[in-house]
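Technical note accompanying the year-one report. For the benefit of new consortium partners, we illustrate the data format agreed upon in the data management plan: each record pairs a sequence with a structure-token string. No post-processing was applied to the example shown here.
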Amino acid sequence: MPQPVLPNKLYFRIGEVAKLVGVKPYVLRYWETEFPILRPGKTPSHHRLYRRRDVETLLEIKDLLYEQGFTIAGAKKKLRDSEMVEATEMALSLPVVDSSGPHAQPCDHLQLLRSIREDLRTLHSMLSSVESPH
């Protein structure tokens, strides 16, 4: 089944995500309890705001559960394993940082890289949708 095209937005409400993923909102809320990787933000009025990365993960979860026939436990393991592979690949490409100095700060490189990647994807999609002036 082809992946839906995600609108050029940073955040999505639960109703939009439910339509994009093709499940009811209560399913999304249930998946949040089962998959720790899903942690949508909340507005001051406690509405869920999903990031683009969350929507992509939800589409992957749906594919694992509905198309490939994984159980919840199997899908969790598959996602965890693919995250570990991704983290290892990223760690191997990171420069070694000297953290022995007096002003050394702990840094979560993986989270930083994921954030940068997400920002670059968003920027790319925004630029791709703008027509060139030629």
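Partners are asked to follow this layout when depositing records. The helical segments are 14-21, 25-34, 52-67, 72-93, 109-129.
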